[in-house]
Design a protein that fits this description.
Helix 2 (67-83) runs parallel beside helix 3, helix 3 (95-108) packs parallel to helix 5 and helix 8 (223-229) packs across helix 14. Helices cover 45% and strands 18% of the residues. The protein has helices at residues 20-31, 67-83, 95-108, 124-127, 130-143, 155-165, 184-194, 223-229, 247-256, 271-279, 293-296, 301-309, 319-328, 338-350, 352-366, 371-385, and strands at 7-11, 35-42, 56-61, 89-93, 111-116, 149-152, 169-171, 201-203, 206-208, 210-214, 237-241, 263-267, 283-286, 313-316, 331-334.
Length: 386
Amino acid sequence: MQLKNKKIIFAVTNDLSYDQRMQRICSSLANACYEVELVGRKLPHSKPLKTDFNFKQTRLTCKINKGKLFYLEFNLRLLWYLLRQKTNAICAIDLDTILACGITATLNNNTLVFDAHEHFTEVPEVTNRKITKNIWHVIGKIFIPKAKLCYTVGPQLAELLGTIYKNQFEVIMNVPVSVDAVVGVDRVNRVNEVNSVNRVDEVDGENTGYILYQGALNKSRGLEQSILAMHQVENIKLLIAGEGDLSIELRDLVVKEKLENKVQFLGFVQPADLKQLTVNARVGLNLLEPNGLSYYYSLANKFFDYMQAGVPCICANFPEYQAIHEKYNCSVLIDCEVNEIAKAINELLSNQNAYQTLSKNCIIASQNFNWAIEEAKLLNYYKQIL
């Protein structure tokens, strides 16, 4: 098989339009003269794909979109698609794509790569379902040791996954592209101006500051607690950007609690619009419940998005976040409880000096947590295996 450039196919089960990590990875590798294709799923509500990326995007349509049968159908469709492609490497994103990717790589003699966005068998939706968890674990034990390159989002998760699957895991953090090329005190001063307590944005026709949650609306992400905390918070809205398994339940909760004037759902937001939304937020939320090791050892992209924008973040008091906070003092670490959330929000909004200190520290920290650093590592890893 002769290809003009080394080709890499990445496979995910989600909608390609909103996957910022994969957009960054694919763009970086395409800029380095690899031929890159990102394969994902087309959902009934999927919007047309952006056409200005430098890599190919392919969507597979499934008849079933939930449950065990969805994963079976998607992997069968993905397998049929991959077997007909000429490529040098196939990268499975999480365990839910590694079955098709692993079989194809074995049959077609492709290099197998594994990117763990999370500890899949320890997410809240899986960890307490013994049969489902065991099936995914066995699939991982079969194929992950065969991968020539494995990487994940944080150092403690890399160590844990390496022990379980008997393969070395590197770290490619889920960090954003720098908002600009300005560094040091000038950048701190610029963001201080934006981060003053007079931060505003247009929401429902009103000029108002806001608290922001961005990400999937799934179990154990502190969303119910954050909504209920708004009973104790005045003169600011909570904006929720994203959709997920709890989309309907959370909207019903807001109506039940009569919080429609304090909580606003934005639905899916394109990454470019989300960046602007984040820059103009007053406070960011990154709260998790300790239901499964995946969340406990997480290092979420939203944490770094808030950091990059200079937005103080109220964050889960988990190991990876503790390590960064101890070094940079750039967030507020709490347990995911209604009263603690309300107290943390009110203290941030009322104490301007503390707010500005956290904001400055976010910008200082972001110089060490941005995509330019992770991109160099990523390109080096792929250069070694291809």
